[in-house]
Amino acid sequence: MERLQQKIQANRDVVRRSKFFNEIKSSIDVPFTCIRCLALGSPTQSSDSRYQYALLLELIDWLGVTNVSIYDPVFTEDDKQLFGSFSIEETFDLPQDQNVLFYIPHLPLEVMEQVVNNEQPVYFLGNDVIVHTDRLTKRKLAELYPSMAVMVQYSSNDSKLDDGFTKVAKTRKSYKEPEVTYNFDSVYFKKVEIVRYQNNFNKSDPWGNSFSDLALHRLVTK
């Protein structure tokens, strides 16, 4: 455990001195009193998770947060020992609380859909919702993850076209997806704001893909 702690401390030093962490600090102007961390992975077994855990610890210190709720089903007994006084809890009872920062690195879409529906975060630091859902068509996204689909719509500034095709040349047309109907009344938010970071992924950074596409999201409640 001592050797692991030394690795994490070294990772914290790297994160603290990085341009990426300075960007995060510049983007946050909310006096958060609690951090809810999900999908961290196992810091005792994964180098990516150790860097993500290092960022969590730096956020805790910088924000002065003492209330930390953390959960991932992959946690080992060694992980739980590492977390010390953090509350390891599968459920969370502070929905739509603007003083809670959700830190959710690389959360799978199906779990993100559940978190949005059940825990209703207002602020979350996680994968850019536009990038994270880009592999799915709009129709498939709406079918599988309706709340995420609404979030993408609120995040996007794309203009809607009248028909199913967009002209790209006089003699050619490019296929456009059929129009999708979204249930905007089913979600608790009316607007989504995203702050993206320029330095979360550079080839020269030692943390690799640990923070790729990480962005700060604000879900403005109704």
From TrEMBL:
A GO-annotated cellular component: cytoplasm
Residue ranges constituting the SRR1-like domain according to the UniProt record: 28-217
Cited Pfam families: SRR1
Coiled coil start-end: none
Highest taxon of the lineage: Eukaryota
Family: Belongs to the SRR1 family.
PANTHER family, A to Z: SRR1-LIKE PROTEIN
Identification of the protein by name: SRR1 family protein
Classification of source organism: Eukaryota, Fungi, Dikarya, Ascomycota, Saccharomycotina
